[in-house]
Amino acid sequence: MKKIHLWLALPFGIVMSIICITGAILVLEKPLTALFYPEYNVPRTEVVEARSSEPHPAAEGAKGSDVKKRPHPKKAPFFAATLKLHRWLLDAPANRGERTLGKTITGVTVIMFVIDLLTGLYLWWPRTRKALSNRLRVATSKGLRRLLYDTHVSLGFWSMLVLLIISVTGLTWSFPVCRTMVSALLEPIVGADGVRGTIFSLHTGTWGGVTSQAIYFVACLIGTALPLTGYYMWWKRRR
After folding, report:
1. What DSSP string runs through the chain?
2. b/e for 97-124, b at 16 or more Cβ within 10 A?
3. What is the pLDDT confidence band of residue 55, given thresholds at 50, 70 and 90?
4. Residues forming beta bridges with residue 49, ordered by sequence position
5. Mind spelling out the 3-state secondary structure of 199-218?
6. Upper half-sphere CA count for residue 182 (Cβ side, 13 Å)
7. pLDDT-based confidence at 85, cuts 50/70/90?
8. How far is CA 92 from CA 14, 26, 97, 200, in A?
9. d(CA 179, CA 172)
């Protein structure tokens, strides 16, 4: 199990950190946009398809009553680039739904991250009460090496559930089969109409307002550190 955990992280760790740190930035997109890019908070109007039993009413020349308008905020260039890096490693598809190398690498990396989180939980699992106590806290007075070790082990445990939720819901944008599976799990709970919004809120942390977004932000920062601290621990052991 240790070898699986290590050898999956070594080639994908840097991409894992990129995905996590860009995710952390995107969690703060709304307040940072208001602070640094107030001009991008001005909504523009976007005509969207109204809910109807008839397919594509606007496209079939429907009347004004068949469509509705909703505000759609513009995205500041910095956050547009961050999203492009987060989802496609800057290799965005020309058309929606198309696959690119960047999109594939991102999706595969997230799968590796999920496996690493689960194998990490197996390796974390303590055999004694004293070991449990040590693995639930971060020692800040025992040197840099112990601090980085505890960051990897203890903070990795505390953030694991949130990182798993983010990762599994994120896979729905990379692989249709994952979208089908997650939708099948959520549909009995939220209904068919609520699946898409639920996946988005679970992925971005908006489901609980500021509190859940703060938790997601911290979890993403820890997720960024996990591969980096793992690299450090591996390098020290080799020496």
Report:
1. -HHHHHHHHHHHHHHHHHHHHHHHHHHTHHHHHHHH-GGGGSEEEEEEEPP-SSS-TTTTT--GGGEEEEEEE---HHHHHHHHHHHHTT---SSTT---HHHHHHHHHHHHHHHHHHHHHHHH--SSHHHHHHHTS--SSS-HHHHHHHHHHHHHHHHHHHHHHHHHHHGGGT-HHHHHHHHHHHHHHH-GGGHHHHHHHHHHTGGGHHHHHHHHHHHHHHHHHHHHHHHHHHHHHH-
2. eeeeebbebbbebbbbbbbbbebbeeeb
3. very low
4. 67
5. HHHHHHCHHHHHHHHHHHHH
6. 25
7. very high
8. 19, 17, 10, 19
9. 4
188-215 confidence digits (pLDDT tens) = 999 999 999 999 999 999 999 999 999 9
Type of residue at 162: V
Q: What is the total residue count of the chain?
A: 239
Rg (CA), the chain: 21
In the chain, domain spans = 2-37+97-238
Closest by CA position to 112, among listed 59, 177, 55, 174: 174
> Which residues lie below 8 Å from residue 111, measured CB to CB, with a gap of 6+?
171
The distance in angstroms from the start CA to the end CA of the chain is 22
